[in-house]
Fold these 2 entries.
Entry 1:
Amino acid sequence: MSSGEVVVLRGGTLVDASGRRRADVVVSGGVVAAVGTDLDPPSGALQLDASGAVVAPGLVDIHTHLREPGMEEAETVESGARAAALGGYTAVVAMPNTDPPVDSAAVASRVLGLGRNACVEVAVAGAITVGREGRRLAPLAEMAALGVALFTDDGAGVQDARLMRRALEYASALGVTLAEHCEDASLAAGGQMHEGAWSSRLGIPGQPAEAEEVMVMRDIALCRLTGAPVHFLHLSTRGSLALVRAAKAGGLPVTAEAAPHHFSLTDALVASFDPVFKVNPPLRGPDDVAAVRAALSDGTLDAIATDHAPHPPEAKELPFDQAPPGMLGLETALALALTEAALPLESVLALMSWQPARIAGLRSTQGGPVEVGRPANLCVVDPSTRWVVDPARSASRSRNNPYAGRELTGAVRHTVAAGVAVVVDGEGRR
Ligand code: DOR
């Protein structure tokens, strides 16, 4: 990616982990070249208006399905990265449930190679087990040697507690983090939605909240046993969040994320039988939604992560029980957080930029602070602009967007990734 561009972000309010101040930012050669007021912009610079807007470290999504290799009809590294940039992201972590899965250094380097041509930074999560089958450990050291810092069998949880213990011990020795998709396969088996009043009424088999919670409980126990950090992916129930809250209070090295759909949609939407509302973990009831919101504001949750899961129309047009789970998220996550989570902007940015950057091991390039010499990964956000979600306008190759027609507040004006203005005035530049 070219880093030769000179960009001036003028008239905005800078917000990073150190606070809020009025400042212009000059970007040159891929880094922040100047921060201050009354700056003399170099001639020929691309001048971007940031007045009335917030200039912040770019967002970091630690849970993105880019579908390459193997499912390019749904998404590619290139198309997913463009969707990410439109959502204000300057880095994404690509999940390993591709075809073939990212369970070897060869596949990890292939995705990392594709990422080098993408418009935002693409990090890769490796699988914990070979083929994500939960039977044998994948070669974590080989992948870690390539810079892979996060490992998960996402899409499935590691069912075997002994294997998970060994994986945690190994990960801890390597200095990498394991991220668990918490789903007990036996309890969840056959469940197409959340088990509750709606699943009974609709006659759709459900998976109970406890299918998530028993694995959260087990992994907290394994974290205590091994001392290895554990990151919990897309938590969705009050019980899971209470477990994480207690584990943190007890000093265990656990971190956790929630996806926007788990604080903005409920299982009542499944009454439409529209597979766009099918996702895993499933949409829950209002009490769980309230618990996710509370956990975002009290520090139990460290990150908002999209679980951007593109699926082609022919897959999502199948009957509800046959359609794959998953929904798009990159282009709507920030606005959903600003509209629905009732959090101050600073907290939203902490949950979507510097905290996930730390979990993913991306602090050297992502998450700020916005200081001279730091890599220029920035987003410019209009916190009060209203817009209506139109799935047809997405940069994603897929259209499984559950927010069609919804009015949201908060829009991405510009995104600067590795010093290049990749989104200007809400439009992608490539
Ligand atoms: O809904 C989901 N879709 N949940 C997952 O864990 C995997 C994802 C996918 O890859 O489609």
Note: The chain has a mean pLDDT of 97.
Entry 2:
Amino acid sequence: MSTQVKIQELTAELKQHNYNYYVLANTTISDQSFDMKMKELEKLEMAFPQFADANSPTKQVGGDITKNFNTVPHSTRMLSLGNTYNKEELLDFDVRVAKLNGGNAYQYTAELKFDGFAIALRYKEGKLVQAITRGDGTQGDDVTSNVKTVKSIPHQLKGDFPESMEVRGEMFIHKAAFVKMNKDRAAKGEDLYKNPRNTAAGTIKLQDSSEVAKRPLDAFLYQLVEHGNEELSHWDSLSQMRQYGLPVNDATKLCDGIEDVWGFIEYWDKERKNLSFEIDGVVIKVNSRLQQEEMGFTSKFPRWAMSYKFETEQAESKLLSITYQVGRTGAVTPVANLEPMQLLGTTVKRASLHNADFIAQLDVRVGDTVFVEKGGEIIPKIVKVDTSAREAGSLPTLFTITCPECETILERPEGDVVYRCPNVDGCPPQIKGRIEHFISRKAMDVDSLGEGKIDVLYQSGLVKRAADLYALTQENMLGLSKAIINEESGDERVVSFKEKTVENILDGVQKSKSQPFEQVLFALGVRFVGETVAKKLAFHFKNIDALMAADFEELNGVSEIGSVIAKSVIDYFEIEANRVEIDLLKAEGLIFEVVEKELSSNALDGAKIVVSGVFTRFSRNELKSLIEDNGGKNVSSISKSTSFIIAGDSMGPAKKEKAEKLGVRMITEDEFAIMLEGS
Ligand code: IVH
């Protein structure tokens, strides 16, 4: 491969990993491999600058900007840190620091490296007025109303604070809180969160602050950005922040030399398992802020700070076989079956292999010695293959070409990373998966049916599609039974349909007929139409016939419905079996139209209203319901046709400017309440 191609490939791959990490909050690579690839690219770019991409990931900080928040600029760039993984690199860093300081003495502060996401908080006259995510380092999302729900972050500073100041730090979820959240989700049959960091990052991006408030986010602040007293050392600024009442972690150490720092690192590498939150390393900073200023920055990192990353706990095992699982959408996921081994206190027998590209990148083969990591994630992953231990004559892994369940030849749609089984109507796990989705809590909510019972009903031939559920009777179900084996534990359990079970099923199925249209639409399982999108489509089109008649432009024109969803909806209705299914469900009496609520008044008749900012008298949701209950329409972005804006505290400057430019009126929540009085 030519060097130019190698640079292009590494660039594209790292960009994708950045996207997975920052936008999708779903990483498929270990931190260590990511950093290794980054270093390799840096080296190549240094040697062959003519081949470097102008927007190379080596020159960027990443980015997590999402479209639903106001984007606001940072006061100064929010940079990340250079990483080291061993003592030699740490000593190299110390040599550079010594050189840059020209023989003058210096100290370090060593701190824990919290594994969450970065946040910048601005306090004016002691009041928290703005919280911004890191974003691309230059600008981030204004998530003030969400951050205000976090208990450990004070809304009001204590003591002798400056008129305006900015502090930066990390937000995260404690390990125990994460486990509890997942237990609750498991009990409700919901998908589990992957790890505390992604859950925290996802939480701060929720649109509904009251939902954020229910999740236990916490924070530690580690940087005083703007304060007025440049002579304050970093160590002293941490104490100062504590005096203001800000959460600053106590495990910090003022170190007299790099050996002192090393002692801190060794101590916390062992002790970190006893912390209530996750850390992924230690951060070392030159203590004097005057010296920091002198040393300055590279294009990406401060020269006066460095992070030392701990190795994630890994275990060695042998890859015994690769099997493939088929999901409801036909996606085929490879699973590694491993020689059982212990990792972080649990026995691990399987690991995710994600997709065909992942297998090819790792070049993992049956019989290989592999390293498995858990890194807070529920499903362990294979991160490395020991190719030196490979037996001669081993062959590269070929991804299965046929479906493991129905033997249909798999397809890989262009631009997709997964292989899919196209046998939508004949492949058992796809059929069962769709029925399981149909009866799930947020869809038709038939809790008397579950995976095991669906399996029995499918095997017996009684239920082959969702509509068949409505034809079930006491006679045909009574007495059915089947032994079901749990693949993970090997345990056997018998599912049998006794009188009470059958009664509950019939009752649940009957009740499901009154589920509202948006849930019925979600239950159909159209790809990319999740709970929220289903709601949007249902309320926009009002009934299934209008939705089915809509063309691409019409769908794409609905707020927040993009081209991928629009295309998927069109594709779904083009399939005859799907249209037949809808007719059958209609005949059973399911609800396929929005049942309009009785309005409290018509005071806002048809007005398009934007709610923006933080409120004290009403919650955002209350305001939104008030708008709808009085005949108004909630819209998310300001345009010429916006009737008015209900503006709360800390409404973003960009929105304000837009409103002023377009001449859209802004009113307070009190003025809005007066508007509705008497109506
Ligand atoms: S200082 C310019 N201190 O790690 C220096 N960062 O990989 C800014 N982090 O973006 C960062 N704990 O999100 C600093 N004690 C700590 C930290 C910390 C976690 C995060 C932070 C930063 C990333 C760099």
Note: Residues 79 and 300 are 6 Å apart (CA to CA).
